[in-house]
Amino acid sequence: MTTPLLVIVAFVLVSAAVGVIGRGRGEMNIERWSVGGRRFGVVLVWLLTAGEIYTTFTFLGASGWAYSRGAPAFYILAYGTIGYIISFFLLPPVWRMAKRLGLHTQPDFFLARYDSPVLTTLVVLIGVVSIVPYLQLQLAGLGMIVEIASAGAVSSHLAIVVGFAVTCVFVYTSGIKGIAWVAIIKDVAMIVAVVVIGIGLPAMYFGGVGKMLTELIRQHPTHLTFPGGTTTMGVGWVISTVLLTGMGFYCWPHTFASAFSAKDDRTLRRNAVIMPLYQLPVLLVFFVGFTALLVMPGLKNPDTALLALVGRSYPGWFAGFVGGAGAVTAMVPAAMLLLGASTLVAKNLYRPLRRGPVSEQHLMRASRGFMLAIAVTALVLALWSPTELVKLLIFGYDGIAQLFPGIVLGVFARRVTARPVILGLVAGVAFVIGLIWSGHDPFLGLNAGFAGLVVNAAVTLISMAIVSAGEPAGAHVPGTQC
Amino acid sequence: MSGPRRGPGIIETVAKEVPAAALVSALAPAVALVAGLPFVNRIEPVVLGLPFLLFWILGWVLVTPVFLAIAYLLAEATPDRTAGGASR
What we know:
The structure holds two protein chains of two kinds.
Chain A (H helix, E strand, L loop, with lengths): L2 H20 L7 H6 L6 H12 L2 H13 L6 H27 L4 H9 L2 H33 L6 H51 L2 H11 L15 H14 L4 H4 L1 H4 L3 H10 L6 H15 L9 H9 L2 H38 L6 H25 L4 H12 L3 H9 L5 H20 L10 H22 L13
Helix pairs in contact in A: 1-8, 1-16, 3-8, 4-7, 4-14, 4-16, 5-10, 5-13, 6-7, 7-8, 7-16, 7-17, 7-18, 8-9, 8-14, 8-16, 8-17, 9-14, 10-18, 10-21, 14-15, 15-16, 16-17, 18-21, 20-21
Chain B lengths: L8 H4 L7 H17 L15 H25 L12
Helix pairs in contact in B: 2-3
């Protein structure tokens, strides 16, 4: 076993142990396993939010795109800020609704607001399907880390399977509270790793970040403006992608749910104020990708740029530390996504389908079953349909951002009923799928998901106007049962 | 617990106005960052060692908390603030 691999294994084992200890005593039920019983203090909530923000995407995906695409990767620095600004207005009213009506999940919100089982089912399906590429991304990242750290002794396929197994064991043993504690280790390790390599690598090879950038501009004059190393990702693509992903940021079932676990609405606003700063490490990750491009050009898989450069530049134990940080950075979000998605399916899809009472134990078992099914789906895709890490997350956003009109109108527009939202959702999703399958992404220079969102919003608003026209002016529109 | 449990009526009790000034303050950095992109898609001038495009994006990310803090204070200063805080 190589030194880096040994350090990574030790890192992962310690993290898993913290997860098991952190989950606390007592019997597990679905509420505790999935939402921690809604008793989390501000610190734990903040850790969970932060735990979901830095993922393998930030670590390997962002450096990979900085390496291969250049400037289009800058969207990653910008979109979180747009998302937090939207959350400043969106989450407090959602929190107040959730508090008053005792809502736990995103589909709960849709059911309460629109009173439509059809729409609720659609929301669950879009949520789970969009999460799969996000999960695939984490598994693929774990696989790369293990493969590179073992110096090729472990094949990439085997490495992905190992990553999958470790993540599943981690979720089964820890539950959400255990994972929240591991998120601390993850964030600290991740920040330390990113600061050291983001400043250290440009300094090591070029004597500083400024000099590295000067050299990059000299060697690749078009790399740092749009469309960078691509032909299709111009200004229009970047703007539409920033808007799509910014609007989608709080549409994920797990990010939306931060409005449920917070202590009060004011906390959500305060969080929104400081969260943009959480995006800054991405800048350092870009620097690593740029340095890698100059030092070791021509890598077959750009997503491995960060790991390859670290492995070449630092002693084995530090490369192992970076790999370990990366592994936990994939495991924690993967575990959270799995927990969130399986809970949605169990609570909002499976339970309503079963007539009659369903026991807590039964639901818990079902939830674990669904978790395995979702994880296996992501595993199969990671093994047989490998895609760039950043592209995977954008696929996820193409789907999940389609919930945005329904959420915003649901919170701020009293007249909207379920039917227009359903029509918009179906039209938007169908349009996106059509564009991607027919190879029209980007579409007219815009991100296909954004084009779908425009179609979605237009259909929703037009059918809203038609519904309203059929009503006497000022009449109260009752919740339509679909 | 009062009010309807389902349907659009649930908005009634929770909808709350954010003052226009807070809205403007919070949205300003988002609009500026995105709307500026077509005009800043260039290397020169290099600021603090960063190509101008990267500096532009980074700059707005850094000052967004200031704009949001102002919006937060403005929202807090709105008198009907307590309406939604029934839980406290």
